[in-house]
Design a protein that fits this description.
The complex is a heterodimer of chains A (281) and B (618).
Chain A lengths: L8 H22 L1 E2 L8 E2 L2 H6 L2 H33 L3 H16 L2 H12 L4 H8 L11 H26 L2 H9 L4 H12 L1 H16 L3 H7 L6 H12 L2 H38 L1
Antiparallel strand pairs in A: 1-2
Chain B lengths: L1 H41 L16 H8 L1 H32 L4 H16 L2 H14 L6 H26 L3 H8 L4 H12 L1 H17 L2 H6 L7 H7 L6 H23 L1 H6 L1 H22 L3 E8 L5 H11 L1 E8 L2 H9 L6 E2 L3 H9 L3 E2 L28 E14 L5 H4 L15 E4 L2 H11 L9 H18 L2 E3 L2 H7 L5 E5 H10 L3 E4 L7 E9 L5 H12 L1 H11 L6 H9 L25 H16 L1
Parallel strand pairs in B: 1-2, 1-3, 6-7, 6-8
Antiparallel strand pairs in B: 3-10, 4-10, 5-8, 5-9, 5-10
Helix pairs in contact in B: 1-12, 2-12, 3-6, 3-9, 3-14, 4-6, 6-9, 7-8, 19-20, 20-26, 21-22, 24-25
Classes of the chains: A mainly alpha (281), B alpha/beta (618).
Chain lengths: 281, 618
């Protein structure tokens, strides 16, 4: 196999050019002023201090909270779904998981559009409520609409890794737990939940990443005043034209994600170490 | 006996919990599939509504097939997905193979690069690529989109192939070579066939990722190249079931693809070669097809979304035996950003203040009015305005005002006497759409405070900012984009800030709506056709401008879009026929306090942009 070692070179060159250089350029932009011309650039920290203004901090906070809410909802709904799916026979499980994956393959924009016609004031959900004599609710342009849209978009990313990890659990472990006198709840807590942690962590990481950086869903379902950090970045690049501030925001967003992922990984490691320690004892 | 009943009990409970599982799973699946089903159902609607089914028809499918820009987008999405999949699969596979026995440092580098790409949010990857392409001056379009797609697909291919490579017996290649195979033969005949499963997963992943991508494509494209997602995003203005028809087809294709790949992996694997060859031929055929189509004269037009009757474009193409590359933008600002990042067009259709800016930045060239004989029909009231004295650079395309559209069944006529202040009247709290545009919102606030909308005083802007913040606090307003049109047609809220042309369109669809130009004055705007300095074919560009002013063409375009035609005879005639009784079609020009937007100095612009961001983020 060593014959092929050199074949890695094209990709190394490629990735430096098209993956690393852009990152360096974002960093460069974020620490400079001078706009898009790159002629009269000068070093500055202004772009980052601007993020410290209360209004932008509020945007960051809102994004973080909305992301955490969506992830938590996904975790609860997704875990139960994944667990229930594992209660079926193998072929049914395959089918169900296929059904969970199909929406993932379909364009987010298209599905978000459908939510608009479902949630709008004269939309299908309100017409449905009307059948029972219930008053129409305003769903569009609220947190509710954004969360619904977001959860339906990212839920599969939570379900699949959790399902995979639960499915991997050796059934004899569960039997053993039963034999040793654990009741259903205890078995679930001590065996299934514990052993599915890696899947949960994967799912949380994926959904957190997707929800915190989204800008299309809040823009379509939340309206123009629904400003999350993704929208703020898009605004800076597409309409305001302040690429320097936009770059600084992207770096902050990336940092938030990195911190989130590192925390999750640490949690994962501790969990594993604990398991190892437990085994040793 | 006791044991038996216990068993039965357990069985019963098991059955019971199964039922619970099924109900829960079904509920979640409804949540997943409801939007998809709704999309598909409404693609067969006989009317335009996306909320009420009025009958069954295929008319939106017909519209879809006849819509050149959508079909082009389908072509772009497909070919990009195919090319990106093929290239990233080859690149990813050889990289994965070469990694397995490489030095640890190389492995770490590649893995970290992969993690960066997979773990960094789309929007960050997108802006990185956007900055890269604009700073090395690569003209944005098909090529940049393809490069970007390869960039984000390859890491996924590597991660799906690499585990399979590690499972391989490393001596297998040596064995093949000992038996006389060349390294290349060992690679293609021994190793790659053994990696089939991983490669196959990579292909599927890369294809769908590329085909569905929006964020990255949106930032890196230009010059008329749009994929399906971008078309969908720009089509917000007048959502109609054509998009649903397109979605339905896309959904069906993807579902069929997935089901085929799941149900018949064996079939595909054994026929992989044949499939690959057919795929290759298809790609080449498509490429040739595209090459053939792009012969002859071309005109690159960059216009606002849903701002032309597409049939007119087709007629112009056949009349002048040329090809129109037609691309749309969603705001003047995004058009400007696109231009600055290197996109090139022959004709633009920006608004007044943007025309002034482009003139100042020497991005436009003068028009030879001798080549535009139809100019004599233009309404003199809208000529020679401050943004382009003497109309050296611009030919009016549509004109109008910004005003308030209101629901006559809800809004009290008396309240409307307050003009713009009605938008702060607590009676209508939660019942107001503002327009999601920085300039228009500040225009409203400035006018409401009694200032000029072209003020340069930051104190006045500060007052206007406070007006807007106060409005947000008390009124719970929604800053809607062009979705306001659909929403007002459905009568979702009582008051909305709209452009007169959109107002006319809404009034045609919903008779309860009426339109006023507030007495504190408003923005009189004029969108004009201009020719850029890098226009390739001035003669054809002027033919196009002249063609758009032809009475018959101008009339049809005005009916289709709903905006007021700059051709006086056409506007007068339509006001009495097609748009009879639609006050928004005849906006009041020349109101004492009305103004035209002017160019803003960069510093002021940034000041306002910052305020605006704060208003929206508040």
């Amino acid at each position: 196999m060593k014959h092929y070692n050199k074949l890695v070179r094209p990709y190394l060159i490629w990735s430096v050019l098209i993956i690393l250089v852009p990152i360096i350029m974002i960093i460069l932009y974020s620490f400079t002023t001078g706009g898009n011309a790159l002629v009269n650039i000068s070093f500055t920290l202004k772009n980052f201090t601007r993020i410290g203004e209360p209004i932008y901090l509020e945007v960051l906070k809102k994004s973080l909270i909305l992301g955490l809410i969506s992830v938590s909802i996904c975790l609860v709904i997704g875990y139960i779904l994944a667990y229930f799916i594992t209660r079926f026979s193998d072929s049914v499980q395959d089918l169900l998981i296929l059904l969970v994956t199909i929406p993932m393959w379909i364009n987010t924009l298209l599905r978000t559009y459908a939510w608009i016609s479902l949630l709008s004031d004269n939309g299908l959900i309100n017409s449905f409520l009307g059948l029972f004599g219930l008053d129409a609710h305003t769903f569009m342009y609220t947190d509710f609409a954004v969360i619904i849209g977001l959860v339906s978009d990212i839920l599969p990313f939570m379900v699949i890794p959790i399902h995979t990890s639960i499915r991997k659990i050796d059934p004899s472990l569960i039997e053993a737990a039963h034999d040793l006198g654990a009741d259903k709840f205890m078995t679930f807590r001590k065996v299934i939940l514990k052993m599915s942690i890696p899947g949960v962590i994967n799912g949380v990481m994926m959904t957190f990443l997707l929800s915190i950086s989204t800008f299309v869903i809040p823009k379509l379902l939340g309206g123009g005043q629904y400003m999350l950090v993704g929208n703020l970045i898009e605004n800076q690049f597409i309409s305001v034209g302040d690429w320097n501030f936009g770059s600084a925001l992207s770096i902050i967003l990336t940092l938030i994600i990195l911190i989130g992922l590192t925390l999750m990984k640490r949690f994962d490691r501790e969990e594993k170490e604990e398991a190892v320690d437990g085994a040793k004892k | 006996m006791a044991q038996r009943s216990n068993k039965q009990d357990r069985k019963y409970r098991k059955k019971n919990s199964k039922a619970l599982y099924i109900i829960y799973i079904a509920c979640i699946f409804v949540f997943f599939y409801l939007p998809i089903v709704v999309t598909m159902v409404f693609s067969f609607n006989s009317s335009k509504s996306l909320t009420r089914m009025t009958g069954f028809s295929f008319r939106w499918y017909e519209r879809l097939i006849n819509d050149g820009s959508i079909m082009k987008a389908v072509y772009v999405s497909l070919t990009i997905a195919i090319f990106a999949t093929v290239i990233s699969t080859v690149l990813g596979t050889i990289t994965a193979i070469s990694l397995s026995k490489n030095r640890k440092i190389v492995k770490d580098v590649v893995h970290n690069i992969n993690n960066i790409t997979i773990m960094s949010p789309d929007i960050v990857t997108a802006i990185g690529l956007m900055i890269l392409f604009s700073s090395v001056m690569i003209s944005k379009g098909y090529f940049t989109m393809l490069l970007s797609h390869i960039a984000f697909c390859t890491p996924y291919v590597i991660t799906s192939v690499y585990p399979k490579v590690r499972q391989l017996d490393p001596s297998i290649a040596d064995a093949a070579m000992d038996l006389g195979a060349t390294p290349f033969e060992a690679l293609t005949k021994v190793i790659i066939p053994m990696l089939k499963d991983g490669i196959y997963a990579g292909v599927l992943l890369a294809f769908t990722m590329s085909f569905d991508d929006f964020v990255i494509s949106y930032f890196v494209t230009g010059n008329g190249v749009e994929n399906i997602s971008i078309i969908v995003y720009n089509m917000t203005k007048r959502t109609n079931p054509t998009i649903n028809a397109l979605s339905t087809i896309v959904i069906l294709v993807i579902v069929i693809l997935i089901i085929c790949s799941r149900l018949m992996p064996h079939l595909i694997k054994t026929h992989a070669k044949k499939l690959l060859i057919t795929g290759g031929i298809l790609v080449i055929a498509l490429a040739i097809f595209a090459g053939v189509r792009s012969g002859g004269r071309t005109l690159r037009v960059y216009n606002a979304g849903e701002y032309i009757d597409p049939e007119i474009l087709a007629e112009f193409e056949s009349e002048y035996n040329c090809k129109v590359v037609y691309e749309t933008f969603d705001s003047n600002e995004s058009m400007y950003t696109k231009l600055k990042s290197g996109a090139e067009y022959d004709i633009l259709v920006p608004s007044d203040y943007m025309i002034e800016r482009l003139i100042r930045e020497e991005m436009l060239q003068p028009i030879n009015w001798d080549n535009i004989p139809n100019a004599k029909g233009l309404n003199p009231d809208i000529m020679n305005l401050a943004y382009d004295p003497g109309n050296v650079y611009s030919v009016p395309y549509f004109v109008g005002t910004v005003g308030i559209l209101y629901d006559t069944t809800v809004v009290d006529e008396e309240d409307l006497k307050e003009g713009w202040e009605v938008l702060r009247n607590p009676k209508y709290a939660g019942n107001v759409y503002m327009y999601d545009s920085e300039r228009d919102s500040f225009m409203i606030a400035l006018k409401a405070c009694g200032y000029s909308m072209n003020t340069e005083s930051t104190e006045e802007y500060q007052k206007a900012y406070e007006w807007l913040i106060d409005q947000r606090n008390t009124m719970d307003v929604v800053y809607a984009g062009d979705d306001v049109i659909d929403n007002m047609i459905s009568g979702n809220k009582a008051l909305a800030v709209v452009y007169s042309g959109d107002g006319a369109y809404i009034m045609c669809e919903n008779e309860n709506m009426d339109y006023i130009d507030p007495q504190q004055g408003t923005n009189e705007w004029c969108d004009g056709m201009v020719m850029t300095t890098n226009c390739n074919d001035e003669e054809l560009a002027e033919c196009f401008m002249n063609y758009m002013l032809e009475p018959d063409v101008a009339s049809r375009n005005s009916i289709f879009v709903g905006y007021t035609s700059p051709v006086k005879a056409v506007a007068d005639e339509l006001a009495e026929t097609e748009f009879e009784g639609i006050s928004a079609y005849v906006p009041v020009f020349g109101g004492a306090k009305n103004e035209v937007f002017r160019y803003q100095e960069l510093k002021l612009k940034q000041y306002i942009a910052d305020l605006w961001t704060k208003v929206k983020a508040y």
